[in-house]
Amino acid sequence: MNNANQRIDKFLVKYLPLAPKSFIYKMIRKKDVKVNGSKVNENYILQLEDEVSLFLYEDLFMQFVGKKEILDLPQTFSVLYEDDQILVVNKPAGLLVHEDQNEEVHTLSNEVLSYLKRKGEYLDSVENTFTPGPVHRLDRNTSGIVIFGKTLPALQSLNEMMKQRHCIDKKYLTIVAGRIDSDKELIDYVKKNESLGRMYLVSPKDPEGLKMHTLIHPVRYNAAYTLLEVKIVTGRTHQIRIHLASIDHPVIGDSKYGNYELNKKIKKQYHLSHQFLHACQITFTKPLGKLAYLKDKTITCPLPEKLDRIKREIFN
């Protein structure tokens, strides 16, 4: 099931991850790849129960297959919802979703694979071409909801839903500096400085600018702070943090876009050393494909104990 509905060339790239792509396309051109005994081109879409045959020396096959080792990692996330197709988890702050140049092992993605392997739902010794994975990410120090596809059809449907927007509503809770006493719709354009890892607002006329659309709703406020419910229409890197900083209401604890002096005060008073930002709710408003059964399903995620305590102290 996890190999159906994908092009044969993409299947082979995942099946032979250590093979040069040029070698894979050469195999297809030379008719060394057959499906159900017939020659195919790289555009062929695999169907359920198709049988793929490769004419390849065994030593080359073993060299190109490789093997993804699933480590037995401790579970720091909690499960919010799970069925045969998807897994929705609560990511703690401080944990990367994907590996980066500094951390290759202790990531949410690897923890989820370890969890599924322990359950017997993902056998790395058998599954060569599909790996369950997240359909979106959160910043390392943002906590809350992350959605994983457990099957290829689920991941394909989730990716299409993310691409189309308005299929999954995502809401966040944050505390910002200053008082906001009415709903606001924020629309701007941004681009990323790769070397600094920062997003910058740019003119709508900038050809490299990406549209950023955010809706904010004040839940509670006082003279110094506002508890906001934030809905993102687009999903740009650091979107909520840069958008709120741009209207002079930075997220408390945000070292990248926030207020330095305020963050020093917050750290001293509340022992918070990262941004107060939590992905608290998703609703499947327009699920597609294999996930149509999730229509109107809402999944919520409570604030971590530390953030909830800070919220109570600020808005007592």
Question: Mind explaining what this structure looks like?
Answer:
There is one protein chain. A hairpin with a 2-residue loop joins strand 1 and strand 2. The longest helix has 13 residues, at 152-164. 25% of the residues lie in helices and 27% in strands. Strands 4, 5, 6, 7, 8, 9, 10, 11, 12, 13 and 14 form an 11-stranded mixed sheet that branches. A 3-stranded antiparallel sheet has the order 2-1-3, with no helix packed on it. It is built from 8 helices and 14 strands. With 316 residues, it is of the alpha+beta class. It is elongated and about 75 Å long. The chain has helices at residues 8-15, 21-29, 58-65, 108-118, 152-164, 239-246, 260-270, 305-314, and strands at residues 33-35, 38-39, 52-54, 78-82, 86-91, 133-134, 143-149, 168-177, 184-193, 198-202, 210-221, 225-232, 277-284, 298-300.
- Number of continuous helical runs: 8
Q: What's the N-to-C terminus distance? A: 53 Å
Q: Helical amount among residues, as a percent range? A: 10-25%
- Give the averaged pLDDT, no decimals: 89
* Biggest sheet overview: 11 strands, mixed
Q: Summarize the helix and strand pattern as letters.
A: HHEEEHEEHEEHEEEEEHHEEH
Oligomer: single chain
User: SS-based structural class?
Assistant: alpha+beta
Shape: elongated
Q: Detail the poorly predicted runs.
A: none
Per DSSP E runs of 2 or more residues, the count of β-strands stands at: 14
Estimated share of beta-strand residues: 25-35%
- Cα-atom Rg, whole angstroms? 23 Å
What's the quick description here?
This protein has helices at residues 8-15, 21-29, 58-65, 108-118, 152-164, 239-246, 260-270, 305-314, and strands spanning 33-35, 38-39, 52-54, 78-82, 86-91, 133-134, 143-149, 168-177, 184-193, 198-202, 210-221, 225-232, 277-284, 298-300. With 316 residues, it is α+β, with helices and mostly antiparallel strands. The longest helix has 13 residues, at 152-164.
